[in-house]
């Protein structure tokens, strides 16, 4: 495999290298033996030639490279200058050069980043602002990198568990669509002479086939117009899709999914709180910053909890009253209040619920996949049996 490595060596600055190795670890070791300090490693391949050269700004990669250069002893401006010189994408290089110019004007790093809200979210700004008080920007970058790594890991586990069911559903849907729009209309013409001798369900199926054959184009256009109208309606209302999803999750049939969705939301919320508290942000301020991660119902509960906290109520008690702290979280918050290590306890809460979400996603995928396969198979078999039932009856009457 080929790896593209950004490395730093004293006297040469930052260098981009291409290395052939069996793994990223081996590639990094090979470069390290040559006296380089690895900044970042990215696997490349033939398909990379077809990618866009100016990809969107990768905040995680930027943080990893900046942290490595800061740990190597370079100043902030020197580190950004090194990143600018190695960058091949014009848009990214211009962004980094703009950061350098503003830093040389005497502005703080957090104030400079605040001028580019599209690339640097409020969470990132808060961490850099807090690190300026302690003078340890490298540690802030490390905390952000770990935070993003944990968030991306649980997201990948959930997505990977949903890939096969989604693929199975798509393929099964295409097969059913082919049967209903192509095969059934053909059979309807074959059975026209049978008249009332057909079974009732076969009659309905073949009537559908005749309808598709005679008015298929009109039905397709009507469905497309309806789909565009629905998308436009929900797009006009910012919370339209969220409102629809919330109504679906509030149904009794999807109650287990609603519980797991809330668990995942709270895990993200507490992980963000832990990151902010580790970065030196006050608890009340951190709660306000992490508020947007919650849904509307939870945001209302958090607002009530913030009022109680400002009034002197303990954080664990206020969060428990607002149903924002399940039993495990409530216990850990109380321990954190006694030990004074709330940031660590909130990170542990997030770890606990992330693992619970990942286990549930794996279990759901293992249960849902065979059920989905069985359902699609039975539906296809039902259509085929209805199509061939008149032939079976005709063969029986001949005998």
Description:
The chain has helices at 24-33, 59-71, 76-86, 90-104, 109-113, 122-134, 137-190, 200-236, 240-249, 255-278, 283-289, 296-310, 315-321, 327-339, 342-398, and strands spanning 2-9, 13-20, 37-44. It has a 3-stranded antiparallel β-sheet, sandwiched between helices. With 399 residues, the chain is mostly helical. It is extended. Mean pLDDT is 78; it is low at 46-54. It is built from 15 helices and 3 strands. The longest helix is centred in the C-terminal third of the chain and has 57 residues, at 342-398. Helix 3 (76-86) runs antiparallel to helix 4 (90-104) and helix 7 (137-190) runs antiparallel to helix 10. 23% of the residues are buried.
What is the topological layout?
Layout: E1 2-9, E2 13-20, H1 24-33, E3 37-44, H2 59-71, H3 76-86, H4 90-104, H5 109-113, H6 122-134, H7 137-190, H8 200-236, H9 240-249, H10 255-278, H11 283-289, H12 296-310, H13 315-321, H14 327-339, H15 342-398
Antiparallel strand pairs: 1-2, 1-3
């Amino acid at each position: 495999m080929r790896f593209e490595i950004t490395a730093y060596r004293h006297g040469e600055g930052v260098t981009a290298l291409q290395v052939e190795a069996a793994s990223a670890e081996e590639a990094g070791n090979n470069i390290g033996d040559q006296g380089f300090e690895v900044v970042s490693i990215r696997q490349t391949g033939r398909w990379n030639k077809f990618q866009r050269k100016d990809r969107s700004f990768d905040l995680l990669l930027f943080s990893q490279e900046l942290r490595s250069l800061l740990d190597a002893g370079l100043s902030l401006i020197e580190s950004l200058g090194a990143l600018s010189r190695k960058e091949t994408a014009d848009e990214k290089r211009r962004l980094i050069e703009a950061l350098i110019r503003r830093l040389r004007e005497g502005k703080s790093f957090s104030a400079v980043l605040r001028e580019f809200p599209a690339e640097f979210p409020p969470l990132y700004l808060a961490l850099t602002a807090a690190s300026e008080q302690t003078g340890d920007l490298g540690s802030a970058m490390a905390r952000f990198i770990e935070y993003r790594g944990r968030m991306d890991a649980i997201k990948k586990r959930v997505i990977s568990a949903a890939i096969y069911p989604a693929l199975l559903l798509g393929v099964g849907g295409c097969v059913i669509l082919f049967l209903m729009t192509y095969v059934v209309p053909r059979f309807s013409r074959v059975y026209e002479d049978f008249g009332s001798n057909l079974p009732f369900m076969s009659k309905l199926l073949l009537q559908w086939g005749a309808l598709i054959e005679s008015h298929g184009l009109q039905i397709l256009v009507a469905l497309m117009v309806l789909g565009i109208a629905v998308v436009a309606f929900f797009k006009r209302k910012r919370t339209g899709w969220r409102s629809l999803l919330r109504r679906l999750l509030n149904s009794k049939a999807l109650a287990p999914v609603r519980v797991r969705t809330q668990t995942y939301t709270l895990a993200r919320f507490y992980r963000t709180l832990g990151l902010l508290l580790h970065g030196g942000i006050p608890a009340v301020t951190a709660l306000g910053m992490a508020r947007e991660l919650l849904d509307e119902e939870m945001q209302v509960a958090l607002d009530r909890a913030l009022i109680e906290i400002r009034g002197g109520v303990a954080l664990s008690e206020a969060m428990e009253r607002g149903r924002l702290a399940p039993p495990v979280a409530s216990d850990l918050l109380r321990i954190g209040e006694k030990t004074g290590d709330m940031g660590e306890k909130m990170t542990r809460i997030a770890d606990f619920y992330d693992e619970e979400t990942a286990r549930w996603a794996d279990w759901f995928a293992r249960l849902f996949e065979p059920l989905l396969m069985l359902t699609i198979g039975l539906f296809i078999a039902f259509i085929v049996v209805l199509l061939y039932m008149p032939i079976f009856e005709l063969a029986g009457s001949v005998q």
